[in-house]
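Consortium newsletter contribution from the modelling node. Members have asked for a concrete example of what our holo predictions look like. Here is one, prepared for the magnesium ion complex that several groups have been discussing at recent meetings.
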Amino acid sequence: MEEIISLKNVDYSYYGKIPALTNITLSINKGEMFSVIGLNGSGKSTLLHIINALIYPDSGIVQFDGNPVNEKTMSDKSFGVQFRQRMGYIFQNPDIQLFCPTVFDELLFGPLQVNLPLEIARERAEQTIKYLGIDYLRERPVYMLSGGEKKKVAIASILTMNPDVLLVDEPLSSLDPKTQTFFMELLLELNRAGKTIIFTTHQLDLIEHLQPRVVVLSDDHTIRKTGTASEILNDEELLISVNLIHEHVHKHGNEEHRHYHSHYVFHKH
Ligand SMILES: Nc1ncnc2c1ncn2[C@@H]1O[C@H](COP(=O)(O)OP(=O)(O)OP(=O)(O)O)[C@@H](O)[C@H]1O
Ligand SMILES: [Mg+2]
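And here is the predicted structure:
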């Protein structure tokens, strides 16, 4: 398999004093479904920011398709534009991502930004807005949308770019159950079509459903383990140690029950 993204010994701390990633080494292949799991604050979003060159590591090396990604290479116009064209980022919080006057403008923005002709940009925006079922919102200003609607617009605005690599931070946050299912199926479909998909989550059911390769971050911002979905889901000890499942004690009448609680996978009585 051909590698598309690699990180070697990457460290990052905010303002030089709040550690967020420590000694991260990983390699992601073209066309892979890959996920980053860990508790709140373990460094998942920071890792996606690094992969997307929104921030640069304090030390260590990041590569995209065999080329180094750093301030210098990103300031090279042809590399920078190509990089942005090939990688799309759906943020955890859609508010940071949306800034155009209307929903339709938002969908046009990406394609125009990478110099696609207006006709093609419009065509893509039309297709995507219908595909995601948000055509009725097209003239709405984004501040007049619900959280879930904003998330859908954020997803749409990235899909119009037709990126090779899709970074998705907490794919299901603020979506209703029906839209969650739709979006999970969409991610599977995009992956089947050859896209590399990298997402973060602390929901183990998403790992079970999408069956990605998984990297587990621990509270100290290091990698605890990398493995297939089933290698990770079956490693109860690991999941307890990084607090992704916890022992849960409750009573049925006078009888005390203990079981591991992870919302889905290990919820056995
Ligand atoms: N803008 C920031 N300024 C300072 N510290 C930050 C900032 N963003 C994140 N951090 C810190 O960096 C660490 C990693 O945060 P990050 O947002 O990457 O975690 P996460 O795994 O995505 O968490 P969550 O599940 O809550 O989204 C945390 O300790 C966090 O407090
Ligand atoms: Mg996060």
